[in-house]
Amino acid sequence: MKISRYANAKSFNDALVYYRVHDKNFAKINNKIFYNEYKDWFLKQSSSKNADFERNKKYFLLKLKKLEIIYLLYKKKNFKLLLKIIKLPNILLKLKFLIAILLPLKFVKYLRK
Questions:
Q1: Nearest 5 degrees, angle CA 95-CA 100-CA 103?
Q2: Would the pTM count as exceeding 0.85?
Q3: How many other C-beta atoms can be found within 10 angstroms of the C-beta atom of residue 21?
Q4: Contact between residue 68 and residue 96 where contact means Cβ atoms under 8 Å apart
Q5: Distance CA 96, CA 108 (A)
Q6: Quick one: how far is CA 44 from the chain centroid?
Q7: What residues contact residue 76 under an 8 Å CB cut-off, 6+ apart?
Q8: How far apart are CA 91 and CA 39, in angstroms?
Q9: Cα-Cα-Cα-Cα dihedral of 94, 110, 21, 28, to 10°?
Q10: For residue 74, what is the enclosing H or E element?
C-alpha cells in the first residue's frame, strides 16, 4: 500500500502464506506474549506519528483491547475484566465476551479451537 504512493505497483491473487490453525497454535497458547508484543508495537507506532497508523488507530486500539480481554479471560475472571468488557464500543463484542466470562474456562478453550 505504501509503495503505491510514489510508484506503480502490480498485484496478484496467489496465496503468499498458508497459516495453519490447530490446538497447539503458539498464539492461542501464549496469549500474554501476543498481547504484550502487540501492545509494544502499538505504543511505538503511537509515538512515531505515522500517518497510516493514525488513520487506522481506532482499529488497532480495538484489537489491543480484544487481545487484553482474551489474555485476562485465561488468567483470571474478576470485576476489573468485567469493566473492560463493558467499556468496549462494539455491542456484539461485549456480548461475546460477557458470555465467555460466564462460561467455564474449559468450554471457552473448546470454542476457540
A1: 130
A2: no
A3: 9
A4: no
A5: 11
A6: 17
A7: none
A8: 23
A9: 60
A10: helix 57-75
DSSP E strands in the chain: the ranges are none
Listed residue (73, 84, 71) closest to 31, CA to CA: 71
What is residue 37's predicted lDDT score, i.e. its pLDDT?
Answer: 92
Give the amino acid at 35: Y
Total structural domains within the chain = 1
Cα–Cα dist 84/97, whole Å? 10
Predicted local confidence at residue 39, as pLDDT: 94
- For residue 63, CA distances in Å to 31, 69, 70 come to 13, 10, 11
Grouped pLDDT means (10 residues each) for the chain, 113 residues:
70 76 72 90 89 90 92 83 91 90 75 64
Res 113: pLDDT:
59
| Alpha-carbon 24 to chain mean position | 18
For residue 44, give its domain range: 3-111
